[in-house]
Design goal:
about 0% strand; Tetracycline Repressor, domain 2; mainly alpha; Arc Repressor Mutant, subunit A; elongated
């Protein structure tokens, strides 16, 4: 029961922190939304900061486990078709997973107020994804699937436009289907340009 309650607390805290920010989130409101007293909330977490830190730890683990990281690489594609499928799978997770959508919102708003969040935003929005694709592209080049190029620059060229379009999905969720189509077109274009003939 305690783990379930702690998990519920973190789920609801994510919603509130993403909506109101750290400073704007009130533990009384959090307790009320959970149907708990404030003292019951303190039984599980001793402070708002403890909830915040537990939530950030949980979000980092959730993202790394499901999306990957330079230290937790996905299986390297054995063809350009597999690269497309892998990319679109990662993209669907990123665009449609509610926890990840809320995480992006939290990172975007809190990066200016919290050093840990600033570092996490840089890692989440730039370094980790580019690092994954740097390793993937290097291995695909070694396998003769992609033209020989600077894998780090290639990963940046691949991920930067996609990241921008993901943020557009967050700002314009009503246009999500069209934005996903644009990303698919870009990924196909990129693969056609860099696939080894």
């Amino acid at each position: 029961m305690e783990n379930t309650t702690k998990s519920r607390i973190l789920d609801e805290a994510l919603v509130l922190f993403a909506e109101y920010g750290y400073k704007g989130t009130n533990l009384r409101d959090l307790a009320t939304r959970l149907g708990l007293s404030k003292s019951a909330l303190y039984k599980h977490y001793e402070s708002k900061e403890a909830i915040w830190n537990a939530l950030i730890d949980r979000l980092e683990a959730y993202y790394t486990e499901r999306f990957g990281s330079p230290d937790n690489l996905p299986e390297v594609p054995k063809s350009c078709e597999e690269l497309f499928a892998m990319t679109m799978g990662m993209l669907r997770f990123t665009i449609f997973d509610e926890k990840i959508i809320l995480t992006r919102k939290l990172l975007l708003t809190e990066q200016f107020h919290d050093e840990r969040i600033r570092r996490l935003a840089t890692r989440h929005f730039l370094e980790s994804t580019a690092g994954i694709f740097t390793a993937v592209f290097e291995k695909m080049m070694d396998a003769g699937l992609l033209k020989r190029n600077n894998p780090q620059m290639l990963a940046f060229l691949y991920t930067a436009p996609v990241t921008s379009l993901i943020h557009l999905c967050d700002r314009e969720p009503e246009n999500r289907a069209g934005i996903v189509e644009r990303i698919e077109e870009f990924v196909k274009y990129f693969i056609a340009e860099y696939a080894k003939e």
